[in-house]
Amino acid sequence: MKTLILLICIVLFTHNSQAQVGINTTRPMSTLDVNGNVIIRDVTAVSTLSSDYSLMIRDKSTIGDNTVKEISSDLFSGKKTAYYATKNGAWSLLNLSLGGGWQKLNLTGTSDTKMGNASLFTDGVYTAIQPGIYSINYELQLESGINIEALGGKKLGILKNDALWEEKKLDGVRVSLLGITLASIPITSTGIQSILSLETGDTVTFAVNTNGLLNVGLLTDSKVNVFIYKISN
Fold first, then answer.
1. Dihedral through CA 165, CA 166, CA 170, CA 176, nearest 10?
2. What's the chain's Rg over C-alpha atoms?
3. Using CA atoms, how far apart are residues 47 and 63, in angstroms rounded to an integer?
4. Sign of torsion, CA 192 146 225 129?
5. C-alpha closest to that of 165 among 173, 174, 155
6. Where do the domains of the chain lie, and which CATH numbers do they carry?
7. Would you place residue 196 in the very low, low, confident or very high pLDDT band (cuts 50, 70, 90)?
8. What are the pLDDT digits (tens) for 86-118?
9. Does the pLDDT at position 213 exceed 70?
10. Which of 64, 138, 170, 204 could form a disulfide with 126 if both were Cys (CB 3.0 to 4.6 A apart)?
């Protein structure tokens, strides 16, 4: 062990940058070439992974001697991110360029963020700062329940980069006989749960289709929740 330490010190402090030292080999292929096991007895432990740390692994991609390479700990930590915004009524809708009655939520990170980076959410649009697979939840809670006839055909929508990714109609349960509706159960809440693959800079827009809805206040008086969580790389 003393011999190994001495040789490592020679490698680190020598003024000859071309020098190569071999242990158990007469033909060193790098600055320090160890043909055998290495034991390190005193190592400081860390409790969490971050970009301040990296890991050393053995590269076995080629036949023959292997080299040790450095990889980012981000690949293991996943750098999980979570964002949550909510507003209980008094929100509005902003026009989208899609047409067809689609409008985005006028929620902002500054006032409506409950958890996460507020700067990532503006006017109902979330911008991803990390690539990965994300879980998305979009929920509308109507305060006292609204008859489905008033909101029939209206939709919630999730857009990825301004393209419609998923939609859900605002609907409820109807009891009918021979095509005639006898009773309808008021809507109390509705939502969309989805999974998206996002790259850095991709956007997720939370929208509502109000085409033909005369009283938009039926929606904007309700509570809205949006939740975004990165689940994997």
1. 140
2. 29
3. 36
4. positive
5. 155
6. 1-43 (no CATH), 46-77 (no CATH), 82-232 (2.60.120.40)
7. very high
8. 888 777 777 666 666 788 888 888 889 999 999
9. no
10. 204
Identify the band that residue 214 occupies on the pLDDT scale cut at 50, 70 and 90.
very low
* Residue partners of 23: CB distance under 8 A and separation at least 6: 4, 7, 32, 33, 34, 35, 36
Task: Reply yes or no on whether the pLDDT at 84 is more than 90.
Answer: yes
Which tokens sit at 93?
Answer: 């809708």
Among residues 95, 79, 91, which one has the least CA distance to residue 134? 79
d(CA 177, CA 120): 49
Average pLDDT over residues 142-151: 58
pTM: 0.62
